[in-house]
Design a protein that fits this description.
13 strands; HAT_MetX-like; globular; Rossmann fold; cytoplasm; Rna Polymerase Sigma Factor, Chain: A; 12 helices; 9-stranded mixed sheet; alpha/beta; homoserine O-acetyltransferase activity
């Protein structure tokens, strides 16, 4: 693993016209770029992940996994707004010499892709062999594939969509309401809003998993208890884990970024945007995903030329894209080794 930082020395203009000075992007690389420069695997991470893909996607990325540094030059860059080294709301605003907090400019999934385009240019990467991302990372990857259709050879997106749904926005707004109910959120300190963030994480978990997941993993074995349930303990534990590694301000802005996702904005509509993608594409849905249900992935595969659709049946709902790595490896192997014709081909692997 090689963690680095790239600093962009010009103002970075956001989709909304606002600008960020001194943009920094933290990124991690594994392996080496080969002489042909055709072994780049670029990973777009999800909402609260970081650039260490081998930490949060083991089984798919690792020394002995399908994507590995022996054959691949793997790059994962921390997104704009995320607190793992890239410019975010706790960064210093050069105009005030204080952290941004709530004055940080709002950004979109298109801005996430634009920032990483700058990094790819800095690294002198002419072509990305495989661009892969799930959830928010999938939204970013789709934006990039639309913005630079000739740069991406193969695109793999999991549990994601072309436009964030009213259902997804409602979940995110509920989480922001929880954060806003914590009065410390408005005190502009690094610890501001952490109690609210803990509650927000609890809400989010209900969309990441499923009824069956909780029924199996958190089921009580003692029929006599009337309090202190396993499910309650689990929600508290997961909330505590997040607030030890994340901040409420990054979560606030990144959730709004997800809400902003709309591939058709200023592009004559979603279908036309999807049809502009030239990358050979694999779209993977999860049958039990209630946050990004499979119909959203089927829509992507239907309208992206040269797209394949695959669906897995996971016990873990939306989180299945991080957990079901054995099934994903088999699907991705088939996709990468496939010889493509000039016609669109949509298949389903289950």
């Amino acid at each position: 693993m090689n963690l680095k930082k790239f600093q962009y020395n010009k103002p970075f203009e956001l989709e909304n016209g606002k600008r960020l000075e001194n943009l920094e992007i933290a990124y991690t690389t594994y392996g080496k770029l080969n002489a042909q420069k055709d072994n780049v695997v670029w990973v777009c991470h999800a909402l609260t992940a970081n650039s260490n893909v081998m930490e949060w996607w083991p089984g798919l990325f690792g020394e002995n996994d399908y994507f590995n540094p022996e054959k691949d030059f793997i790059i994962c860059a921390n997104t704009l707004g995320s607190p793992y080294g890239t410019t975010n709301p706790l960064s210093i605003n050069p105009a005030t010499k204080e952290p941004y907090y709530l004055s940080f400019p709002q950004f979109s999934t298109r801005d996430l892709a634009s920032a990483h385009q700058l990094l790819a240019e800095h690294l002198q990467i002419p072509k990305i062999s495989i661009l892969i991302g799930g959830s928010l990372g999938g939204q970013q990857a789709l934006e990039w594939a639309v913005m630079e259709p000739n740069k991406i050879d193969k695109l793999i997106v999991l549990a994601t969509n072309a436009q964030h749904s009213p259902w997804g926005i409602a979940f995110n707004e509920s989480q922001r309401l929880a954060i806003a109910s914590d009065p410390t959120f408005y005190e502009n300190t690094p610890e501001g809003g952490l109690k609210g963030l803990k509650t927000a994480r609890s809400i989010a978990l209900l969309s990441y998993r499923a009824y069956e997941t909780y029924g199996f993993t958190q089921l009580e074995t003692d029929a006599d208890i009337t309090d202190s349930y396993r499910a309650s303990s689990y929600q508290n534990y997961q909330g505590e884990k997040l607030i030890k590694r994340f901040n409420a301000y990054s979560y606030w802005f990144l959730s709004k970024t997800m809400d902003s996702h709309h591939l058709g904005r200023k592009r004559k509509g979603i279908v036309e945007a999807l049809q502009s993608i030239k990358a050979k594409t694999l779209v993977i849905g999860i049958r039990s995903d209630i946050l990004f249900p499979p119909e959203e992935q089927k829509f992507l595969a239907e309208h992206i030329p040269y797209a394949q659709y695959a669906e897995i049946d996971s016990f873990y709902g939306h989180d299945g894209f991080l957990i079901e790595t054995k099934a994903l490896t088999e699907i991705i192997k088939k996709f990468v080794s496939k010889n493509y014709s000039t016609q669109q081909s949509t298949s389903i692997f289950i």
